[in-house]
Amino acid sequence: MSNTIDNLRGSAELRQAVANTRLQRTVVSFTLVALIVAVVSLLVTIL
User: Per the UniProt record, which residue ranges are transmembrane (predicted)?
Assistant: First the structure.
């Protein structure tokens, strides 16, 4: 019984880790896009 609970807990933790990784990649992607837009806007303003 304990082994089954441990396996379920491990599976849930793995799914959560995968979800966190996907969220982190999404946030980093949006951050990079925002940075690029900011730099382009700055260059357009200067030039």
Answer: 27-46
End-to-end Cα spacing for the chain: 69
Higher-confidence position of 20 and 7: 20
Measured distance CA(40)–CA(13) in Å, rounded: 41
Q: pLDDT tens digits, residue range 31-47?
A: 999 999 999 999 999 98
* 37 token code pair: 């837009």
